[in-house]
Design a protein that fits this description.
Blueprint (H helix, E strand, L loop, with lengths): L4 H35 L9 H15 L3 H7 L1 H8 L5 H25 L3 H9 L4 H34 L7 H11 L4 H29 L3
Amino acid sequence: MLVDWNQIVTALGETVAMVVFSLLFAIIIGLPLGILLVVTRQGHLWENALVFKILNAVVNVFRSIPFIILMVAVIPFTRLIVGTSIGTAAAVVPMVLFSGPYIARLIENSLLEVDTGVMEAAQAMGATPWQIISRFLIPEALSSLLLGITIATIGLVGASAMAGAIGGGGLGDLAITYGYQRFDTVVMVITVAILVVMVQGLQTAGNVLSKKVRRR
């Protein structure tokens, strides 16, 4: 069977759109959530045991749900947000719910790696908690944060492929519809190869950016 490159290009565009929009909204959710998980813990800037325990539990709950199950479980919510449970836009909703808490945990780990001496020095200079977070904590952890975002982006590429199982579009949908259901091995190999190249490119770019912003 001849390969329809138009379909492959279209599917690639859908995958890129899913990953980009999911990553954007996931960062919007995950960044403040990750910061709060750090600053509300015991002995930190805004210590609050109740807030920390609630946020920590929420993140753990969402991280414990396999993506394929989460996609099905949030179908009513997906329909409420985008009006449908099928297609690229519909796939973005569970992808954000899946990756947002994951990014929050990655951000938390990166910020916790920052030397406490940096914050103590900032406090000694009279910096406010918000100034400490924005001018010291995040800049010091930026290299690690970029690596974390890279890992999350690669995870979203994999999630976008799984979204094809429920008609989410993209390369995953193409691989299932043509590669698996129609026994088209060529299409399957091409989609897998494209996904591998995407992952390699993302990891390389993330490593380069992280190295450039690393504070010496």
